[in-house]
Automatic annotation (TrEMBL):
Transmembrane segments: none annotated. It comes from Monilinia fructigena. Residues 125-749 form the PLA2c domain. It holds the Pfam family PLA2_B. Its EC number is 3.1.1.5. It catalyses: a 1-acyl-sn-glycero-3-phosphocholine + H2O = sn-glycerol 3-phosphocholine + a fatty acid + H(+). The keyword Lipid metabolism applies. This is Lysophospholipase. Residues 709-736 form a coiled coil. GO terms for cellular component: cytosol. The keyword Cell division does not apply. Keywords: Coiled coil, Hydrolase, Lipid degradation, Lipid metabolism.
Length: 760
């Protein structure tokens, strides 16, 4: 019954459920006769409104409302009536046997549904009415009075971590460190928490400037930067133990949270604001999913201490404005299939699309990345973004558009709806679905032929989405001629953006960290993906490096060695730099040959396994380091091109090196009985983790971090030493230049003779 209920909810694009009426505060003094009279009149008004709403002509009026809210209410009223009648009929048929046939939670569903229906009628005093009134209150949502426009634009912790005296660390020498987490649902959330907890215990997390996430790692960031995690990863582990032992769609807990104060208003505010604030809003499975996720993840143990500030990403500025915590970067993607760009003039005139045009559009499809920080939502392909507090409001021609009824802007899009977008892996293409389940079925009989067949159709499967993504208002709507040429034509005609899990494009959020201005020196990637590529590990980094203009190559598995001095490690880092695409390719081949030769010697017992080998199977180890240079790159064999002039590029090159540290979530013999590829509870589609499961995952994440602990520290030290040397060289040259200038002016060693009377 519950499955059927949710099918109907999804089929009718039903999002959020609603609870009891707002509780009135008891007066401090006995009410006067006049107040009693007014209270009676108010109650009568509410009763009249409820009676009127039940009349046939009122139902017809609701059905005639073509706004998103009116459409939703009409369909939900129909569903509520239908489900009540069906439930009554079913109860009569199984009378006397219901205790044996029906679970206890199923018996309370009709009451929950009816209560939600009453709360959704927008009658005075209903929860929906209360939420919409608060949405128009600038004291509660100050951003509704701010107008927004689209922006178009092309230290001590380190000393402690490296064991250096604080006075020896110059601010300019401190590396900019970014830490990213992969997608993978609750597995990525729990494993990422364990990995970052290990980094925090080692002192590394305190040195991090940015964190970035995909899917479950976005959930991690939202919890860490909230009243629930309190910016402490150990407390986040405790919160997860208390909240994710029950499935997100378990009806009793989910409906109870939506029918009880204070969680009802906390969870449903974004739903009401989205429907009432945008008459063309679309609601679907992703929105319901986000609501259920929020009911589990954003509600504390006991369900009473909810904090409304946790609902807006822009509020997270308070936790990072003084630099005490890393800046979180959330990600989503839009799948661009350029039908309009491929149309011929004849097709445009006839408004038809041929099969050949569709095929060309499919071949040219790509993903556009959107990042959301506490400050801005930005798309690199558009070269444009908006303030985060303006997320969810309507835009046209680069300017926001107030609500047609209230004249105010709607509040910032709430986190429950965004959680669904960040983790909407079920909106994946069929190709992505297959990549998720492939590790689980590759041992089946006949798998090889099936795998070949699916891989042969991969291009077609990678364009089809069985489930529609979520939509939000498009800030680039109507901005023809204002955005760079990289922006697709379709974006100017679309009133809404269809966004989904960024794992559809890349399960590691590397791209946002390569934006100009972020100047990342060390990028640490914790990969808890289901498809960790242990058989093709070089392409894990080099693939996105080619796509985003970063030349990535390994400088040798096992680097840096714990026995090497800081000076020797820094020399090796410099040796690894490549000055051309050809040299980069050469270094890739050398590293691959070195790894292959080493594994052959291990297999023949001629050589001991390195600490990073996984039983000499050829798999990628626990920690691998690549070093590269940011440059524009086109095709594989073409030399890199730069946007700057040649002289400037040569000056910039030494500062452009990025060290990529890759730490996949692998099985470890030090933690027996826990294997991400075998343990059932680590499936991307599992939504129940017991406290014991969480302890196991965290223990494995810690053990894996320990394998690369010294390697990580050596990498950070090497980058620090390089930046220090470059600064000292730069200062030395500047000092020498100042001295030469004084020599030319004849002022060396002459005090009081450097004024304008002695320049001739």
């Amino acid at each position: 019954m519950f499955l059927g209920l949710f099918y109907i909810l999804y089929q009718n694009d039903y999002l959020d459920l609603q609870p009891l009426p707002a509780t009135k505060v008891r007066p401090k003094r006995p009410p006067t006769g006049r107040e009693k009279s007014e209270a009676r009149a108010e109650k009568q008004t509410i009763r009249n409104a409820k009676e009127l709403s039940a009349l046939p002509f009122q139902q017809d009026a609701a059905a005639g409302d073509d706004s998103a809210w009116g459409s939703f209410i009409g369909r939900f009223n129909d569903f509520s009536t239908m489900s009540g009648e069906q439930w009554k009929s079913l109860s009569e048929k199984v009378s006397g046997y219901s205790d044996y046939i029906m679970p206890d939670w199923a018996k309370v569903l009709p009451g929950y549904i009816e209560k939600l229906r009453r709360e959704l009628n927008m009658a005075p005093g209903s929860l929906a009415d209360d939420i919409w009134k608060e949405a128009q209150n600038p004291e509660i949502n100050p951003e509704i009075e701010y107008s927004a426009s689209v922006r178009v634009s092309d230290d001590i912790s380190l000393a402690k971590y490296l064991g250096l005296p604080e006075e020896c660390v110059h601010p300019d020498d401190v590396p900019c460190i970014a830490m990213v987490g992969s997608g993978g649902g609750l597995r990525a959330l729990v494993a990422g928490t364990g990995s970052m907890l290990a980094a925090a215990e080692d002192g590394l997390f305190d040195c991090v400037t940015y964190t970035a996430g995909v899917s479950g790692s976005c959930w991690l960031q939202s919890l860490f930067n909230s009243s629930l995690g309190e910016r402490r990863l150990d407390r986040l582990v405790d919160h997860l133990k208390a909240r994710i032992g029950i499935h997100i769609a378990y009806p009793v807990d989910a409906l109870a949270a939506l029918n009880s104060a204070p969680t009802n208003k906390f969870l449903l505010s974004g739903f009401v604001e989205k429907l009432k604030g945008d008459r063309n809003a679309e609601l679907g499975l992703v929105d319901v999913y986000g609501l259920l996720l929020a009911a589990r993840l954003l509600v504390p143990k006991g369900e009473l201490g909810v904090d409304n500030r946790d609902l807006k990403i822009s509020n997270q500025r308070d936790y990072i404005k003084h630099g005490e915590n890393p800046m979180p970067i959330y990600t989503a993607v839009r799948h661009e299939i350029p039908i309009m760009e491929e149309l011929s003039e004849e097709e445009k005139q006839k408004e038809t699309v041929s099969e050949a045009t569709k095929e060309r559009a499919v071949r040219e499809a790509w993903f556009e990345w959107f990042e959301i920080t506490p400050y801005e939502m930005f798309c690199e392909e558009f070269g444009a973004g908006i303030p985060t507090w303006a997320l969810g409001r309507k835009f046209e021609g680069g300017k926001d558009v107030p609500h047609e009824e209230t004249g105010l802007r709607i509040p910032e899009l709430r986190l429950p709806l965004l959680l669904g977008i960040f983790g909407s892996a079920f909106c994946a293409t069929l190709s992505h679905y297959y990549r998720e389940v492939r590790p689980l079925v590759k041992g089946m009989m006949g798998f090889g032929s099936i795998d070949d067949m699916i891989e042969g159709r991969n291009q077609d499967l990678s364009k089809f989405h069985p489930i529609d993504p979520a939509s939000i208002p498009n800030f680039a709507y109507g901005m023809e001629g204002k955005l760079p040429e990289s922006a697709p034509e379709s974006i100017y005609q679309s009133t809404h953006l269809k966004l989904m899990d960024a794992g559809m494009s890349n399960n590691l959020p590397i791209y946002p960290l390569l934006r100009p201005g972020r100047e990342v020196d060390v990028l640490i990637a914790f990969d808890a993906s289901a498809d960790v590529k242990t058989d093709d590990w070089l392409s894990v980094v080099d693939g996105y490096a080619r796509q985003r203009g970063v030349k990535g190559w390994p400088i040798g598995v096992g680097w840096p060695k714990s026995s090497d001095t800081a000076e020797r490690t820094e020399e090796q880092l410099e040796e690894a730099q490549a000055s051309s695409a050809a040299e980069a390719e050469s270094k890739l081949e050398e590293a691959q040959e070195d790894q292959t030769a080493h594994l052959e010697k291990v297999a023949s017992s001629q050589e001991e396994p390195r600490s990073l080998d996984v039983e000499a199977t050829g798999d990628l180890g626990y920690c691998t380091v690549w070093v590269g240079t940011i440059e524009e790159r086109t095709e594989k064999d073409e030399p890199p091109l730069s946007k700057a002039v040649k002289e400037d590029w040569q000056l910039m090159e030494p500062n452009a090196g990025i060290a990529v540290v890759y730490l996949p979530f692998l099985a470890n013999p030090k933690v027996e009985g826990v294997d991400p590829t075998v343990s059932d509870y680590m499936s991307t589609w599992n939504f129940v983790y017991t406290p014991e499961d969480i302890d196991n995952v965290v223990k494995l994440a810690r053990a894996n971090f320990d394998e690369g602990r010294e390697q990580l520290r050596g990498t950070v030290r090497a980058v620090y030493e390089r930046k220090k040397r470059l600064r000292e060289d730069r200062e030395s040259k500047e000092k020498e230049e100042r001295f030469r200038r004084k020599v030319r002016l004849g002022t060396v060693g002459k005090k009081g003779e450097g004024d304008h009377f002695h320049l001739t």
